[in-house]
Design brief:
Elements (H helix, E strand, L loop, with lengths): L18 H12 L10 H9 L3 H20 L8 H12 L1 H13 L12 H22 L10 H4 L19 H9 L2
Helix pairs in contact: 1-3, 1-5, 2-3, 3-4
Length: 184
């Protein structure tokens, strides 16, 4: 479990990590995404996205932080694509998501609203995402670029696509493949 640093809001000079926020973070950090089953949440996330187990765990940690920010933020927050992928999977684990995650850990509902599309929505989500990055930095420090890319990259073309691999042959981009090999 991560320690909560002592930080002060630069505008109000009030502590960022209040006791209720510390308690919320402890509940979030204690949630078990890896129960002792052959295909638990983390393993399924790794399998379905072609991620290594450590990459799936890092994505889940980013998701934990995002959910914390969603609860403490006075304004709507927008996830990165990686975090959104974790959130999508968590939603299909509906009993865990609604009863344990929202009911016991967050103690609040956290609904996932897809974009209605269009340039106006794009502007709104770009602004929310930039504010989410700033809020992340306030609570947790600078977000990891591989999990939280810069706003212009996040709202470039979509990176994720659901593909039926029985009908398509998919090859990794050479640079991604080489980068992946160098991390092993």
């Amino acid at each position: 479990m991560q320690e909560t640093p002592i930080k002060v809001d630069p505008q109000s000079n009030a502590p960022v990590w209040t006791p209720p926020r510390q308690a919320l973070w402890q509940r979030i950090a204690q949630h078990d995404f890896e129960p002792d089953t052959p295909l638990n949440f983390t393993r399924r996330l790794a399998r379905d996205h072609g991620w290594r187990l450590d990459e799936a765990r890092a994505a889940i940690d980013a998701y934990r932080r995002f959910c914390f920010l969603a609860i403490v933020s006075p304004a709507p927050v927008t996830p990165s694509e990686v975090v959104d992928e974790v959130w999508h999977q968590h939603l299909i684990y509906s009993r865990d998501y609604w009863t344990i995650w929202c009911g016991q850990a967050l103690r609040a509902p956290l609904h996932h609203d897809p974009t209605p599309g269009g340039p106006e929505a794009q502007m709104v989500y770009r602004q929310q995402y930039a504010e989410t990055l700033a809020l992340h930095e306030q609570f947790f420090g600078p977000p990891a670029a591989e999990l939280w890319p810069a706003t212009h990259l996040r709202f470039g073309r979509p990176r994720y696509h659901v593909t039926d691999r029985s009908h398509w042959l998919i090859f990794p981009r050479p640079t991604a493949w080489i980068r992946r090999l160098s991390k092993r």
